[in-house]
Amino acid sequence: MTKVPQLTPPRRTLLGPGPSDVAPSVLRVLAQPTLGHLDPVFLEIMDQIRSMLRTAFQTKNPLSFPMSGTGSAGMETCLVNLIEPGDRVLVGVCGVFGTRMVEVAKRAGAEVVAVEGEWGRALDPEAFRTAAAGREFKLLCTVHAETSTGVSQPVAPLRAIADELGALLLLDCVTSLGGTPLHLDDWGVDAVYSGTQKCLSCPPGLAPVSFSSRAQEALAARTHPVQSWYLDLSLVGSYWGTDRAYHHTAPINMLYGLHEALRLVLDEGLEARWQRHALHGRALVAGLEAMGLAPIVPEAERLPQLTAVRIPDGVDDARVRRHLLEQFDLEIGGGLGPMKGQAWRIGLMGTGSCRKNVSLCLAALASALGAEGFRPRGDALAAAAEVYAG
Amino acid sequence: MTKVPQLTPPRRTLLGPGPSDVAPSVLRVLAQPTLGHLDPVFLEIMDQIRSMLRTAFQTKNPLSFPMSGTGSAGMETCLVNLIEPGDRVLVGVCGVFGTRMVEVAKRAGAEVVAVEGEWGRALDPEAFRTAAAGREFKLLCTVHAETSTGVSQPVAPLRAIADELGALLLLDCVTSLGGTPLHLDDWGVDAVYSGTQKCLSCPPGLAPVSFSSRAQEALAARTHPVQSWYLDLSLVGSYWGTDRAYHHTAPINMLYGLHEALRLVLDEGLEARWQRHALHGRALVAGLEAMGLAPIVPEAERLPQLTAVRIPDGVDDARVRRHLLEQFDLEIGGGLGPMKGQAWRIGLMGTGSCRKNVSLCLAALASALGAEGFRPRGDALAAAAEVYAG
Questions:
Q1: Which one of A63, A108, A175, B269 is most buried, counting C-beta atoms within 10 A?
Q2: What value of ipTM does the predicted structure carry?
Q3: Per residue in A342-370, is it b (16+ CB within 10 Å) or e — as a string?
């Protein structure tokens, strides 16, 4: 085998759907010396992570900690712990991640009823009631921020419906945590999972989760063992709780990264951070529209941290993204599922949500589209500047 | 909430059962800029990881890559992918990790037959044959390097028995990979999982796995979906293979770490690395025995990278380990399961397997034991030096 050289990854600007740009201090702490997973200093770090996570989620839930896997492992954690074979589960589907919840819930033995909606639109709460058709459900699941389309799903109205169905309310907050308002306790959310590589600006690898006391009661009342040993909350919770019982060896250095990422979130303040994401998202859309690119999601349902735009006719998706990467070290995302080749997804997440990146993205896109023969309708940078001028 | 300061973990010497000391260049690459999970540069890094992993495992298996979780996720990956409900599985148990395999296999729906043996001893291959009692089995599972006791299990004899039972041979190599000889193809191993935080000297967080063509046929012949979507090899394999199909967002920076860790393993050479572990393990045991501490595992069955010693009567386990940590920034491990409070586990793994650490460990232990009123029988450092003198 040829000798492999030490790696020297280029410094990209990551404006795709995640991983997002990582804050420099988060990268630095990753390289701090590894501690044992039962070291008293590390146990203190764990407690600080739990406490900061509760603030970020706006909850008092004691059962709040990061699972040792990516956001998808967080989804599986919630579903396999809350579902027992034969449980009825209602899932809102208007993108890849709703579809995935259906798949994972089925593998956990649930009888799934999907509430299908148009991709690129939020789901009508009434559609959940209709699909439920008066039956009782164990869980009502929906995606708060659909990473495949950039749609924001209003959550509060779903609580009333979950109550009618006798259901726990489960939320996918992979792309919302740290980017847009999230109030677990006020909204009455029972279970939630997220990821580190979106608006927390930490590399991928951990899945923050949180469970209400009602969800904890459901866990305690289980009559079947959780099918996953690795993701079994009663075991993982013993390590993160006061027992400190060894379960698996925690991903120490990744947890350093999450600690620092959460610290930056709270240092900035949640409100300020949400407003920052809102501002730069608006500026980006103004620029894109000025160029003549059409956002897919109507304004009221749009996530500021992730914008899906339609690829203009005659423009080659792959060629544009290669141009951005090769000429500008800039990554944006392609479409997923039915939107493959039809849309780009541009993320302004966490530390990456800033004026510099909005300008870079608009300038680079103008260059790439120019190479495709696409003529921008107007001045994108001026349109963005107008948003900043208020 | 009180403001949380940026973390500054102390620099410990990690001589427990893992995480082990991390090589400085591995820590450094963790802090390299994050790439997108479909970036062409990252795809090349993935290919290099797969190729280096095959060499480290001594296999040609195309299906060799790291799963996005810790070693325990690797165990679950192997079991949930290879087991279908009702499959009969034979598991060797002489420590915590064999016990855990039984538990995980049961949760995957297997009918498990455990081959129980004494903790601290290798299992007699004949015991597998006896327990099988002439029945057919889907899987024969055993732990190659039992992290709870420091026992090395001879694997080659188990292949013949697996053949008699019509079984695939599954191996836990969490603690052996990169530390002691491992020859997947020569030994006829069908499935294997490992971790990064032992003899690879990388932080915890990834689980290298590998599957033979026979195991791949079993995967392809499944009639039930794999119960875990996150760990489903047909999906994860599509991303690591030529399809590059998005499944979950790979833990980019942790994979940088594994890349560098594997590079260091191959740079040193497998034979040289195995010999290094053997040498320092022998020196440590010589020193411990000279002090009057008794290794738990007989010499022929002992892992050089992990030594379990009996805690002398009248010596307080927790107090000694606190002394080591507070006075020497040195971590060793306590006993697990029935060995809790009865044994210490001292790891000399990966970059941590060196003469400096052997001396530090013996000197620090002498200090801690002295504080307990324990009088060493003889000169530990001199005994270790004799081993080094050949």
A1: A175
A2: 0.97
A3: ebbbbbbbbbbbeeebbbbbbebbbebbe
